[in-house]
Amino acid sequence: MATWLHDVFPVAKPIIGMLHLSALPGDPGYDSKGGLATILDRARAELANLQEGGVDAVMFSNEFSLPYLTKTEPITAITMARIIGELHDEISVPFGVNVLWDGRASIDLAVATDAKFVREIFTGVYASDFGLWNTNVGETARHRRAVGGENVKLFFNIVPESAKYLADRDLEAITRTTVFATLPDAICVSGPTAGSQTDMDQLQAVKNAAGNVPVFVNTGVRANTAAAQLSVADGGVVGTYFKKDGVFENPVDPARVRELMGEVQKLRHTLPAS
């Protein structure tokens, strides 16, 4: 297993809690009357609920910037940097960022805020709900180098939500070539939409093919599924389950955070000492 994983997350099977920012300036759903103050107030409350509930890390994302862009407007990452800067002294766990669906902007934001990792779609060509979606991982890797982001860990989502890989290749083959040719720091495996169950067969196939690259289950982690999913995956990303009543649009419910993290702690107690 990659040594960096324990350096960033000093626990086994780390859980990254998603901090979904409200619609931002320029987004169709932006609340111009409430403005940035309203966005910041919700983000501050959700950060506190995630951290007090025991998550191992937090990832800031513009989840409510619907419909998403594959090349974002500058105002999106700029606003996210402002919000993270305002909250920086309150962040007590490692954090990452995700500017949906823009890998370069995510890396820029990570460098600007000292985030430890980013998650994005860095490879592949897809037919998606927002049109034909192409990537250029070679350019993105060189951009990370150019802006001084060598220490920012890249989480590659190789099963993107709301999209289908255009090449006729199975997931194990995609994983093997992704690991060999594009040098991901970690791989994320998702279900078809936010909060939907990640297929266990797909998760196992990716884990089998990923070698020493850590594999994270990216959607559908729940209190009653976490143990089974983490018996395969090296960590998990949780967003929807942490929301009140498990509804994507709702705010984070600290009781649900504690419930899931309690199950993860039970699992950790069964693991062999490293």
Automatic annotation (TrEMBL):
Top-rank taxon, per record: Bacteria
Secretion signal, residue range per the UniProt entry: none
InterPro entries attached to this UniProt entry: BtpA (IPR005137), RibuloseP-bd_barrel (IPR011060)
Pfam families: BtpA
PANTHER family for this protein: SGC REGION PROTEIN SGCQ-RELATED (PTHR21381:SF3), ZGC:162297 (PTHR21381)
Family membership noted in the UniProt record: Belongs to the BtpA family.
Name of the protein: BtpA/SgcQ family protein
Species this chain originates from: Cryobacterium tepidiphilum
Lineage: Bacteria, Bacillati, Actinomycetota, Actinomycetes, Micrococcales
